Amino acid sequence: MEYDIVGRAPTSAEGEYFRSSIWRWRPLVELITRLCPEEAQACLGWLYNDGDGLNADGAKRLARRLETLLAEGAIDVYCREQNSKPEAVLDVARECHPQFDIRRSGTATSNDDGWRHLDRRVMLSIGNTPEREEAFVEASIAALTVIRPALDEAFPVTEAEVEAFTRFAAASGGFSIF
Question: What is the model's pTM?
Answer without folding.
Answer: 0.67
